[in-house]
Specification:
The complex is a heterodimer of chains A (111) and B (160). By secondary structure, chain A is of the alpha/beta class. Chain A is built from four helices and seven strands. In chain A, the strands form two sheets. In chain A, strands 1-2-4-6-7 form a five-stranded mixed β-sheet. Chain A has a two-stranded parallel sheet with strand order 3-5. The longest helix of chain A is centred in the middle third of the chain and has 14 residues. Classes of the chains: A alpha/beta (111), B alpha+beta (160). At the A-B interface, α2 and α3 of A face α1, α2 and α4 of B.
Amino acid sequence: MKFAESTNGSVLVVKVLSSRITADIAPSFKEGIINYVNKGSRKIVLDMSEVTFIDSSGLGALIGCIKVIGDDGALVLYGARDAVVSMFKLTRMNKVFPMYASQEEAVSAVS
Amino acid sequence: MPRLTLSIHSDLEDVSLLGVAIKGLCLYLGLGSASSNEAELCVVEAVTNVILHAYNGERGYAVDVAMWANGDKVVFEITDSGTAMTSRQAEVLMHGTSRGESEPQNSEPLNFQSLNKDALAESGRGLQIIHDLMDEVTYARNVEGNCLTLTKRIGETNRR
């Protein structure tokens, strides 16, 4: 699972470089995000603009990540495409993962 | 009627190839973009479920997906020779679940701000997703194994 990371103030911005988050890569996706948390990043903005498909396993991996981050941190998304947004709305996970149109909005929300 | 069968081995790494093919075929058959995305998602969820549960994650077993268009609908038939679904899993597939976090028919807004995130399940949504997105779902167990049939209607403007 490949990511590209950058910082924006106190927020870590992580771009997901895979076009699909599915059962075969969900464990490595979760491990990768948790590695950032273990290194001290508790406010994470995920750039989902390259992701065209996510299944329930990918969703489960994201849920596993917010459990590790806990209530004193944040994991929010931006740039999600229609199919990904639809998946979050269908499962009502858009209520768990705030989704924004731009990186600026996402970073501002968690800063 | 034209009918196509795609077959993969029970390897999660092969499921995306299948999903991409299914979506392309759905677009060709006139399902439209949103419904084709939904059909891809449902087939991916169903095949992943077969690999993880019917075959217990073991590689080397066949998972077949036959699909055909029949008038105003596209039908997907997913077959495997693994373990049968439990009665609870079959119930969720065909009738849905009352679990609040994944119950989109519930008009009451959920207050996730006060929700204990540790209580959120990391798995178990796939069958509910299939139930919610497909127009018809049937599951049968026979001597050859499991047969899951999913039907998605083609909108009038998209019919070929």
